[in-house]
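Q: Structure tokens for this one, please.
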Amino acid sequence: MEDWLQVTVTLPPIAAEAVSSALFELGSGGVWEDLPDAQGRVVLRSGFPQDSQLRLMADLPTALTNICQAMGTTLADFTLVLELKPGENYAESWKKDLKPLKISPHLIISPSWWTEPISNEENSKVLRLDPGSAFGSGHHATTFLCLKLLDHLAAVEPMGRILDLGAGSGVLALSAALLLPKADIKCLDNDPETLFAAQKNIAQNNLNDRLEAQIGNLSDIDGLFDLIMANLTRNTLLELAVQIAAKSNDHGKLIISGILADQAPDVIKGFQNQGFSPIRHLGREEWSALLLVKGRQESPLPEREIVPEEEKEEEHGEEHEEEQKEEQEEK
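A: Here is the predicted structure, written as tokens:
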């Protein structure tokens, strides 16, 4: 098998989605997120054919410069490293780092290729997911926090119509289908390739009769929704706030993320201007997720609840069970 080129970009969190998209547009076979560096910057790794080096050296700095201008950052905030890696299927190599993720006692998200037994003593719903070239494995802090808020909502009240706006892999809509079996759920995205990933995951989980995936924008869909979920970016959320409010039922709920902690006040204010009130604010690392309800409330702004370290991720399978046994023996 031929050697391949690994591109590592270390960058501010606000630019992660844009850089990921740029890497795919430049021909990457896969993009995966590593642990953040000591400064809290996102570390993205991506695989390319070996003969892509000269083109990447010419095109990638230009793409990063354009992203910097759009995001208000500078190239000094980025680090770019190109490394030649020994023969391996680079399009598949990122998969080895994804393991089943326990969201709550009610929901586990497992990669579709995971073959080891999944520890599921609580009889949780298991969602089989293949992110493909769309982001949304559940491991990123923004997705994880959205899922925590969704799990909370599903436990306290039923939902009729649900919209996953900018659906990506469909992880939020699919999770809603498992947690709220009577809900009518729609995925909406304006990227055909991303929507294909969502459709594949819907079929893989036998949810075709529960979920509809549609390409387009908010203006293309009819009716109102009891819950709208949008894991986007600060600017996109604020640009869509009027349209989101128009598609929300009276007393409808809104789960939003893709925002940094210091951006949350601006986003809250933007949606308050559209008649929403924040009722929960979750945080993990530098990211925030918000739960809002349509309608004015006199209660004070919710404090940011930090998701404890032990709630981040749980590995499942024989390896994790063996580690637990060893820890118990040591005690």
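A few notes: The first helix runs from residue 16 to 25. DSSP finds nine helices and 15 strands in the chain.
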